[in-house]
Write a structure and sequence with these properties.
Chain lengths: ~950, ~180
């Protein structure tokens, strides 16, 4: 900036500042002049005051004039009347409202325009106003026109004085007809409202904003013990009422403080519960009343809900009680929704499963508890719940620890109020311990059965080992008898035969004893020649005593006159054992049987039997012991006389089987007598004498038949071949199963006799092999020669495909009759060929059954009974075996039951089991194996009734 | 707008840049009063804007920057002329909180035509003051300067936070917090 510019700028600055100063001076001058003016005006005001008053008076007169015109134009009714009531002025509004002319009104009495019933009170009002000299009053009354039209007016009256006296009354009134109408309506409404409240079952108290009672009702007075009528309370103050009533409440101070608080807040209070000292329960509502934001008071409502509460708490208590009971019963309860979401888990259930309720709620029950293998079970149960069906089932669930626990679950649907199933409740009972016990028991049972089976097997084997050589001995003695022996030789042969028979019986004894022990012995009643039986026994023991100088006697004076029925085998055994015992302990004198008839009726006879001896005798204190298994009188006895100690126990058991009891009478050194009583039914059937073996050789010829004999025992080979030769039968002899099978492959036989127990390949295996396809002898009858008396052995024989069996030892005629039966020769009673339809249920494979049985109903019956009694139960093994993955056992079981199924005509079951076998062979999935098992079981269930029907039918056949 | 604001602004500019700058601004801005201002007069706010813009241009300063500086300067004018206002208060926060309800009320008595900003108290505790400044004149930075100086005046230490609540800057939030 150069100096010139600087000077210019400074010039401008000075100029600006001068201007600013002048401006400021101007502003200040203006302000002071304003102050001066104000001062001057004040002075003037003071001086002109008097003049102003005069001016104002004038102005007043002017305004009065204005008012007058206003009166005339006013919307209000304006009128004046003198102290006599004569109207002096009425404005147009009044005239218009009452539809009158000025002439009608001015000069007339005001009372003319007031209805009669209002005249007195209205006039009294004005008189009072005048006498009390009230300058201004308000009064409401109706006015009526000449035409009867009327209005309500609200009137301000004013006294107008002249010369110190009341001269006139001026009234300014407003038409309040509408207001009056409205008031009337309000009154009606209020009346209704009051009536309603008075009769309400709730206690009602309405207070105004100053806590004065506007309205209350009887119920309220009742609740608060107020002895006066509710209408008396109106207008009274409630300020202290809480304090006065607090003693009625259980928490009096709280009651008071809460009321104070409510009153301060002035907010709606809903259903607050109050407990009273007398046990009542009240619900309190508080409703503040506001109009356009202004608080006008409030309403209290008290309801007595004691009864409801009591009912509620009773229900709750009862619910709690039952829940407590259930919880204490160790029953775990869990509630789930339809989608298996857990809604509630009770304490016991939580304890049972190891979870807390919080951990469970909202979770999916299946995800938490369900092991995969029970998915199907649960699906089925859920479906049932959906359909409203309750159910009980057992399953395993997962404990929190991961262990599985067994529970018995009782499930029931839960319904909503519309009856829809919304979920289910499961009651769980922990049966893990029981299950464990059950499994242990099951295992124990299996072990016991296995042991029993082993014992049975042992006995069967043993009896076979003894019977096979015995068979040869007996057989040979029969053959020897055919060689024209001398008389002496013949008597020896008799003894030989008798001893053989005796031995055979003894073996049977042992078997019988084991049967008795296992409860398997059955009574088999047949026509019986009691006398002959006893005579034979005596004869046998006479032969047996040898050189002992003792007598064997039968003392029976009153021999029977009729035929009896009884189990000869068992009776024989009883006497045999007792006589054997007597014989053993008697050195001199005699022993034998004493029979005495006790009673005879039309249909039965009772005898008392005594088996006596003159032997050692038994000390009385040993009577009990001798009937105990394997016990004898003393060790000395055993050493001296031998024996097993089973003889008398068998007798005792057998007699028990015949409903009898044995008694002992004995004197040491003199002898013993065993006494028992038996009752026999009488029968009309005569006993057919058994055919003697004599003459067989000449009666039948088997020259046309060709047989195969499979037998490993050389003695038996000789026995059978001698017989067959005698009957002119041609035959091949195989010494074991392998040989037999080879022969059977090479040519067709008419009949095969098959020993059961052979080395290398036993009878069952050989038979199964022969029964395979493509063997020439697939359909050739095979007769089992079995030394085992056990039914199971026979069953096995049938299962492996054999047609019949013959127990060793057998007599020649027994063998012959079997051969004849199967070759349909001679006069044997082979069943006439009945068509299959007549014998079997139509749903079974009739073709197959016809082929198998060719109308032989007896044989069929045996097979069907075996299947039903012994094999159906084996089907139960399928599932456990499958579960335990015991595939080899499973396959064997399927194989075995497959052929059994064919035997009773269940071809479909046969195919299913065949399929099962092939699935196992081909390592099919567990699932498909399970399915096949299921269909097998289903098929079995379907056909069981048909088998039953068939059995009933077969029993009817001749 | 009160003349005192104009005279104070020009005074501040002159102190810092000399009268040449004052002259230049007045000349360039073409204010209709031609720069004639007296503290007792009242002038159009538009002239203040013109002066500020011109000053900003000439000194390459942001308007808010100028206003902030001017606020701090103006505070001294206030303390020398109106010391009475400050005597009644023990702390900056109570003084600031009283602006709207006490000081501005007094100002209106003196100058009924005055247009003053509003300070709405949002929260006032002994340690913290939050208020919203609102004025069509958008001179929050001026206020900020004033507040700063107020705190200094009372020899206190405070953090002062300023936040625009609208885009135009006509409503601004102030939070003044004592640093203990």
């Amino acid at each position: 900036m150069n100096p010139t510019q600087e000077i210019e700028a400074l010039k401008r600055r000075i100029e600006r500042e001068i201007h600013a100063r002048k401006e400021a001076e101007k502003i200040l001058e203006e302000k002071s002049s304003a102050l001066y003016q104000a001062n001057v005006q004040l002075k003037e005001l003071n001086e002109n005051l008097e003049e102003k008053i005069q001016q104002r008076t004038l102005e007043l007169e002017e305004s009065e004039r204005k008012f007058r015109s206003i009166i005339n134009e006013a919307p209000d009714i304006i009128y004046k009347f003198n102290t006599e009531g004569i109207i002096q002025f009425a404005n147009p509004v009044l005239l218009k409202k009452l539809d009158l002319n000025e002439e009608d009104v001015v000069g007339a009495s005001l009372l003319d325009f007031i209805p009669e019933d209002w005249q007195e009170v209205t006039w009294a009002f004005y008189q009072q106003m005048i006498s009390l000299n009230e300058s201004e009053t308000y009064f409401e009354f109706p006015l009526v026109g000449k035409k009867g039209n009327w209005i309500w007016v609200g009137q301000n009256a004013m006294l107008i004085h002249r010369d110190g006296k009341v001269d006139r009354i001026s009234g300014v009134a407003r038409d309040i007809t509408e207001k009056k109408e409205a008031e009337k309506t309000i009154k009606t409404t209020q009346l209704r409202f009051t009536t309603l409240i008075s009769n309400m079952q709730s206690g009602i108290l309405v207070e105004d904003e100053n806590r004065n009672i506007v309205l209350t009702n009887q119920k309220f007075c009742d609740f608060f013990n107020i002895p006066i009528s509710p209408s008396w309370l109106t207008g009274r103050s409630c300020a202290d009422s809480a304090e006065q009533s607090k003693h009625l409440f259980k928490n009096p101070e709280e009651f008071v403080s809460r009321i104070d608080q409510i009153l301060q807040l002035k907010e709606l209070v809903n259903k607050e519960e109050l407990e009273m000292v007398d046990g009542k329960i009240l619900l309190r509502d508080y409703v503040p009343i506001f109009a356009d934001g202004t608080y006008l008071g409030h309403l209290w409502q008290y309801q007595d809900v004691t009864f409801e509460r009591q009912a509620q708490s009773m229900i709750a208590a009862s619910e709690e009680k039952y829940r407590g009971i259930i919880e204490n019963m160790e029953l775990g309860l869990m509630e789930v929704r339809n989608d298996e979401t857990i809604i509630r888990a009770y304490k016991r259930f939580c304890e049972m499963t190891g979870y807390t309720e919080e951990e469970l709620i909202g979770k999916n029950a299946l995800e938490v508890f369900l092991p995969d293998e029970y998915l199907e079970t649960i699906k089925k149960q859920s479906n049932e719940r959906q359909q409203g069906v309750a159910g009980v089932y057992e399953m395993q669930i997962k404990h929190k620890s991961g262990d599985l626990i067994w529970v018995l679950i009782s499930g029931a649907p839960i319904y909503d109020s519309t009856g829809k199933v919304i979920g289910s409740i499961g009651i769980h009972y922990n049966i893990t311990e029981q299950k464990k016990l059950q499994i242990d028991l099951e295992n124990a049972r299996k072990e016991a059965e296995a042991a029993k089976e082993a014992e049975k097997q042992f006995l069967a084997n043993m009896s076979h080992e003894i019977r096979t050589p015995l068979n040869a001995i007996i057989g040979m003695s029969h053959l020897l008898a055919d060689t024209n022996p001398t008389q002496e030789q013949e008597s020896y042969l008799d003894i030989l035969k008798n001893s053989g028979d005796l031995l055979q019986t003894l073996i049977s004894d042992i078997l019988d004893f084991s049967k008795i022990q296992s409860g398997k012995l059955e009574l088999n009643k047949r026509p019986l020649d009691l006398e002959k039986m006893l005579q034979n026994l005596i004869k046998t023991f006479n032969l047996k005593k040898g050189k002992k100088e003792i007598e064997v006697v039968l003392n029976w004076e009153d021999r029977p006159c009729c035929f009896l029925e009884g189990d000869e085998l068992i009776l024989n055994q009883i006497f045999m054992n007792l006589l054997g015992n007597a014989e053993k302990f008697t050195e001199k004198g005699s022993f034998g049987i004493q029979v005495e008839k006790l009673k005879e009726e039309d249909d039965f006879v009772s005898y008392e039997f005594g088996v006596f001896d003159t032997g050692l005798g038994i000390p009385e204190n040993k009577y009990e012991d001798i009937f105990t298994n394997f016990r004898q009188v003393n060790a000395d006895t055993k050493r001296k006389y031998g024996g097993t100690g089973l003889g008398l126990p068998i007798v005792k058991h057998l007699l028990e089987l015949l409903n009898s009891k044995i008694e002992v009478k004995s004197k040491v050194g003199e002898g013993t007598e065993f006494i028992f009583q038996l009752t026999f039914p009488k029968t009309k059937t005569a006993i057919v004498p058994e055919k003697v073996s004599d003459g067989i050789s000449n009666v039948y010829s088997l020259s046309d038949v060709h047989l195969l004999v499979v037998e490993d025992n050389p003695m038996n080979q000789t026995y059978i071949s001698t017989l067959l030769k005698k009957w002119y039968a041609s035959f091949d002899m195989a010494s074991n199963g392998v040989e037999g099978f080879e022969l059977a492959k090479s040519r067709k036989y008419d009949l095969i006799l098959m020993d059961m127990q052979m080395p290398e390949m036993d009878g069952y295996e050989t038979t199964s092999a022969i029964r395979e396809k493509d063997n020439l002898n697939t359909n050739t009858p095979i007769i089992a020669l079995t030394a085992s008396a056990f039914v199971t052995q026979k069953e096995l024989a049938f299962e492996s495909g054999m047609n019949d069996f013959l127990s060793k030892p057998f007599k020649p005629d027994q063998l012959l009759s079997k051969i004849q039966k199967w070759l349909n020769l001679g006069s044997q009673d082979r069943n006439s060929n009945l068509p299959a339809e007549k014998l079997f249920h139509k749903n079974l494979d009739l073709n197959l059954l016809n082929e198998l049985y060719e109308g032989d109903s007896e044989y069929a019956l045996t097979m069907f009974e075996i299947f039903l009694n012994d094999q159906v139960k084996d089907f139960e093994q399928f599932r456990p075996l499958a579960e335990q993955q015991k595939l080899e056992d499973l396959s064997k079981l399927a194989h075995r039951l497959k052929s059994s199924a064919s035997m009773v005509g269940m071809s479909e079951l046969h195919s299913i089991l065949e399929k099962l076998e092939s699935e196992i062979r081909n390592n099919a999935s567990k699932q498909s194996i399970d399915l096949t098992i299921q269909s097998a079981l289903n098929n079995l269930q379907e056909n069981l009734p048909h088998l039953q029907t068939t059995i009933e039918n077969l029993k009817q056949m001749p | 707008m009160k003349g005192m604001v104009f005279t104070s602004l020009l005074e501040m500019i002159e102190n810092e840049y000399g009268y040449e700058m004052v002259d230049k601004i007045i000349t360039e801005s073409g204010v209709s009063s031609n720069g004639v201002y007296t503290s007792v007069g009242t002038y159009d706010f538009k002239e203040m804007q013109q002066l500020l813009i011109s000053f900003g241009k000439n000194t390459r300063q942001d308007i808010d920057e100028i206003l902030h500086k001017f606020g701090r300067y103006f505070f001294q004018v206030m303390t020398s002329n109106y010391a009475a206002f400050f005597q009644g208060h023990q702390s900056a926060l109570t003084f600031l909180a009283s602006i709207d309800s006490v000081i501005h009320v007094e100002v209106y008595k003196l100058y009924p035509e005055a247009q003053l900003p509003k300070f709405e108290i949002i929260e006032h505790t002994p340690e913290r003051l939050e208020m919203n400044y609102s004025s069509g004149r958008k001179m929050a930075s001026f206020a900020f300067g004033l507040i700063e100086k107020t705190v200094e005046f009372y020899k206190e230490e405070c953090s002062i936070k300023m936040k625009n609540l609208t885009e135009e800057g006509d409503v601004v939030n102030f939070i003044i917090k004592k640093i203990v």
